[in-house]
Design a protein that fits this description.
Length: about 550
């Protein structure tokens, strides 16, 4: 089983991977690329929508027709239509953070031969605005474009271009996104179940309203002192992470530097807190630093009721990934969490806007959580009723790295469990899979094996009816920007400096299968644990703890705002 899945993931062709169907034949254009510049897309995007560019070029060595356009009022999109290699498939990719740029890179598809061979038409959108300037937030139409409309009308426009260019529609369509792109993926499945046959949602920022206010706001406030200085700095993270790993590494049954079941970890930061009056703090955290760590793990609670205000927080084992997010290299550096929270808190998430809001203005109460409900039906993609998507024949893969600092895996697991409660386990198993990746950060990176090809697995499921089971992960030196948020400009008041080298020893390169939740991967005990052939399907396990909180019903069915 593991050997087969590895061969799938490193890029065998469709016919090699499955005898259940024949490979789709190549279809070539029937009109000139330049002709697409004259196509009228106002019926899709409204008055002012237009194709602005249609030229032949190459993308990663593949000859393509590159088309750019605007869908009114300001949704920019770009599509790459292969000239010689299209096998009737369409792939739309999401973006990260508050978007504002167009990237045609697909993550979670490492080694996918369909992708590298140029067999997809690919497209992406900037979600209706340029850069990270938050001025667009005052426009209700642009809010809706960011929330849900941009990806939908982009799909409609590109599908129309496909039919014109090739003389036929695509046979299958796919969406792949991570971070906000994961939210966009789920929004498509929930709001527009007929848009895509297969949807891949990585580390989804699905609970956008809470994520970019109470979560990141709390992390920023927790690590900022009264003078605006950072309390816990990056150079202290190796000490903390080493202590967590020492305490919890073997709770998952193997000492490998990765915590595969963070729910079993019972680390107490008091174990590395300096004694009162200690002068040498090189090997321990000061009381103030330890207090920050506790706040990070615990998250915001209402000071009067004690109720938790988030679905979950960063997990044990994620500590090194905090660098550059809510832990800075210097006490004078900016925190990314500040840049993520303030624009959304002040301009998007609440009806009572305050563009000049500061960290000192943030209040973490049940009242503030309740106030987020007004915008929840617009921005969030946590609707557990996916009956429309299931009935349309859609397939959904969700995935999340267990050391993600930006978005707690508890959110993704919460939706998975809510879907089961709403639709029933059998129905959900028929169209959805969830993968939790040990040691993997936000959409990529981390100390664990973060390279994975879920795109090939999705194609296999949609086109052959073969549901994914074990999927291989592996380590390489490559890094990916797929889904990574960027708050470096445009009103966020955040500048990301180059990361300080913390001198962390790299874990050995490895290959390892992951299995659909709640099953885990188990080391057989024979051979090198870095070799996937020495792993097998393990038992069901509690990987991430879920907690009761007053926002748990945000994952129940609801009526979307229009």
């Amino acid at each position: 089983m593991v050997v087969l899945v590895l061969s799938i993931c490193i890029g065998l062709s469709i016919t090699e991977r499955s005898q259940a169907k024949s490979a789709l034949p190549v279809v070539k254009p029937i009109v000139a690329c330049a002709n697409l510049a004259n196509e009228d897309i106002t019926a899709i995007g409204g008055e002012g929508s237009k194709i602005t560019k249609a030229v032949e070029t190459t993308s990663d060595g593949i000859p393509v027709c590159s088309v750019e356009g605007i869908l009114a009022p300001a949704i920019g999109f770009k599509a790459l239509l292969p000239l010689q290699t299209w096998t009737q498939r369409y792939l739309q990719v999401g973006c990260g953070g508050l978007c504002g740029t167009i990237s045609l890179r697909s993550g979670a598809s490492a080694g996918c031969s369909l992708l590298t061979n140029g067999e997809f038409v690919m497209a992406a959108t900037d979600m209706g605005h340029s850069g990270n300037d938050i001025d667009w937030a005052s426009d209700p139409q642009k809010q809706a474009d960011f929330a849900y409309r941009a990806q939908h009308v982009t799909a409609q426009a590109v599908k129309a271009l496909i039919s014109i260019f090739y003389g036929q529609p695509q046979a299958f369509s796919y969406f792949n996104g991570c971070s906000d792109g994961g939210r966009e993926a789920l929004m498509e499945a929930e709001r527009f179940p007929g848009d895509f046959d297969g949807v891949i949602a990585g580390a989804p920022a699905m609970l956008f309203t809470v994520q970019n206010t109470l979560y990141h706001g709390w992390q920023a406030v927790s690590n900022t002192d009264a003078e605006g200085k950072v309390i816990l700095t990056s150079k202290r993270l190796p000490l903390l992470h080493s202590a967590v790993v020492a305490a919890c590494d073997e709770t998952d049954g193997l000492k490998d530097g990765l915590i595969a079941q963070p729910a079993l970890c019972a680390f107490d930061v008091a174990s590395i807190t300096c004694k009162q009056g200690a002068k040498d703090t090189a090997s321990c955290l000061t009381a103030d630093e330890a207090a920050v760590v506790r706040k990070f793990y615990d998250g915001p609670h209402d000071p009067n009721t004690g109720a938790a205000l988030t679905a979950g927080q960063p997990l044990y084992g994620s500590e090194l990934e905090w660098q550059g997010v809510y832990v800075a290299d210097s006490e004078d550096d900016d925190l990314m969490s500040t840049g993520a929270a303030l624009p959304v808190w002040g301009n998007l998430a609440f009806e009572d806007t305050n563009p000049d809001i500061q960290l000192s203005d943030l209040r973490f109460t049940e009242e503030r959580l309740e106030a987020l409900r007004a915008k929840h039906p617009l921005f969030d993609a946590t609707n557990a009723d996916l009956n429309g998507f299931e009935k349309a024949g859609g397939k959904l893969i969700m995935w999340h790295g267990l050391t993600d600092p930006h978005i707690s895996p508890a959110n993704t697991l919460s939706l998975h469990e809510a879907m089961i409660a709403t639709m029933g386990a059998d129905a959900v198993h028929g169209f959805e899979r969830l993968y939790l990746l040990p040691g993997v950060g936000h959409c990529s990176g981390g100390q664990g094996p973060s390279n994975i090809d879920l795109l090939s697995a999705m194609v296999e499921w949609v086109e052959s009816g073969v549901a994914p089971e074990a999927v291989m992960t592996y380590t390489t030196s490559e890094t990916s920007s797929f889904g990574q948020p960027d708050f470096d400009d445009g009103g966020t008041k955040f500048h990301r400096p180059e990361k300080l080298d913390l001198g962390i020893a790299k874990l050995p390169d490895m290959t390892r299968p992951v299995y659909p939740y709640p099953f885990t991967a188990r080391y057989t005990g024979e051979g090198n644990y870095t070799d996937a052939s020495n792993w097998e399907k393990g038992k069901k396990a509690v990987v991430v703890k879920l907690r009761k909180w007053p926002g748990s019903d945000l994952f129940e069915p609801y009526r979307f705002a229009q």
